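Shipment paperwork, digital attachment
Item: protein structure file
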Amino acid sequence: MTYRLVWAGLCLMCVSAGVCRAQAPQTSDNDQLDTLVSPAAPNRYTFTVYWENDGAILKRNNASDRHYTNGNAITLAHQPDWARGFADVASLGENFDRTAAGYIIGQLIFTPESTAVSSLLSKDRPYAGYLFGGVYLQRANDHTFDHAQLDIGVVGPSSQADHFQNDIHDWLDLDEPKGWNNQIGDEVTAQLLLRRKWRIDLAPVELADTHLSQQLIPQAELAVGSVYRHVSAGATWRIGHNLPDDFGPGRLADVSSATGAPTPGRGAYLFGRVSGRAVEHNLFLEGNSFKDSHGVDADPFVGEIQAGVAAFCHYNGWVIEANYSQTFITRQFQGQDGPDSFGAVMFSASRGF
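Attachment content:
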């Protein structure tokens, strides 16, 4: 089951954090820290687990069980020679010298506000599940990053979202959602996502004899397909010690960049993100595209604010990274009762071979 992989990743994150602390050299000398980092390899593999949930485990300050209630995914990225062909595709004058490819499997779950009612709630969003797999290509230079992703999936009972949520609620001794018989119907989906980011180094901050680096990472995104159709723009700001060679913290809807080289030593940073999107289509709100189903009218503009903390370290050639964040989302459909929020964790482990 997917959730067993998620919990395994969370347990591994806790163990790895202790290992990094216990096994790292007891010195601040960067030369000794560098001995934990293997030389740069031509093909670096990165395994990542993402988990997002609006319940008490990840968001005790405002636990709920509604709307976007759970999402999990696993990805595997590497840097194969064949991915370098992506560097020259519609490069728009940019010279990209780093490339990567990746693969993703994930599941998303959506419910109305009340899951204690078995009848159809006509004024609330429908029950919906989404099971998908995808491939993506990435390219980057020192200041620009591109991500292109193609997902093929299924919505409806075949997504197994109802069984997943019921199993989790049984395991945690929670009330079982009663309205899954009203979920949207089975439908095969195809989704294309194009994203560009820019990384801007800001003036460092000296705080209590500590040198803190700052970066601003604007981004623009286009999503087309049978699941989502929207354009969005936003920016991430981060500040911390020894920032990694990437383009911001990864999340399920915006997986980590895998094009960079490992950053020696260990580091940590705080981050904040703001974004807005203009929505033309959201299947999880509007219902099935090719058959009749319950749906609601999507709001044309949606805003998000995210804040969190991230850290990484090296151990015996492995790069271990984790982050935690909370995301707050404005109303997504007409008649929605208040904004939404969810918590998220990411854990990744990478090594060159």
